[in-house]
Specification:
Length: about 190
C-alpha cells in the first residue's frame, strides 16, 4: 500500500538533512580523504626505521596516523605522526640545523647548549673547534652538522590531493542516497 507524506513531514525531513550530514557523513568523508594522504606518506617513508624503546628498531611509517575531530562547526581530519618513531619523522620532514647535542661542562663556560647553538649560528667559529684539536679529545661535546630535509607529508598531499578529494566524494555518495542518509559514522580513528 502506497503512502503519501504531507508537505509538513517532507519539510521537517529536509530541515534535518544538514544536521545529519554534519553528524553522520562529513567526518567519515574527511577521514577517507586523509587516509589517502596517509597511505602515500607511508609509501614515501619506505622502510626507514628509528630507535624504539628497549633498543628495538621501529618503522617510522607506523607512526603516521589519521585523526578526526569536530571543532566549532569545522570537521577536521589530520594526518600526523604519533607513537614510536614519530620524533624521527619530524626531523626527516623538516631537516635539522647544525647544533650541539650535549656540551661538556668543562668547555661551555657556563653557557647552555641553546646559547652555544645561537653563538655558532651567529658565526662564532671558536666554538666549532671544541670537538677535537690535534687528536686531543675535548669531552662529551658533540657538534652535529645538521641533516637535510626529506619531506614525505607535504609531497604526499601535493601528489594525492585530487585522489583524496575523490575518496571523500565517493564516501559521501555511498552514504547519501535517494532513500536518505545510509548508515552512521562510527567516528573511529586509525
Amino acid at each position: 500500500m502506497a503512502t503519501r507524506r504531507s508537505s509538513a513531514s517532507a519539510l521537517r525531513t529536509l530541515e534535518q538533512i544538514p544536521g545529519l550530514l554534519v553528524e553522520r557523513v562529513l567526518p567519515g568523508a574527511a577521514r577517507a580523504g586523509a587516509k589517502v594522504i596517509a597511505v602515500e606518506a607511508k609509501t614515501l617513508l619506505g622502510g626507514k626505521r628509528a630507535d624504539g624503546g628497549g633498543g628495538s628498531k621501529v618503522l617510522i611509517a607506523d607512526a603516521v596516523k589519521v585523526r578526526g575531530r569536530k571543532r566549532g562547526g569545522l570537521i577536521i581530519a589530520r594526518v600526523l605522526l604519533d607513537g614510536p618513531g614519530a620524533y624521527v619523522g619530524r626531523w626527516l620532514e623538516y631537516g635539522t640545523d647544525p647544533h650541539f647535542i650535549s656540551v661538556d661542562p668543562a668547555y661551555r663556560d657556563g653557557m647552555t647548549a641553546r646559547r652555544i647553538n645561537k653563538r655558532v649560528k651567529g658565526g662564532d667559529t671558536a666554538l666549532h673547534a671544541t670537538l677535537m684539536i690535534n687528536g686531543r679529545p675535548v669531552g662529551t661535546t658533540v657538534y652535529h652538522p645538521g641533516a637535510a630535509a626529506h619531506p614525505f607529508l607535504r609531497p604526499a598531499l601535493d601528489t594525492k590531493q585530487a585522489e583524496a578529494v575523490a575518496a571523500a566524494q565517493a564516501y559521501i555518495k555511498s552514504r547519501v542516497t535517494r532513500a536518505g542518509i545510509v548508515g552512521s559514522d562510527g567516528g573511529s580513528n586509525e
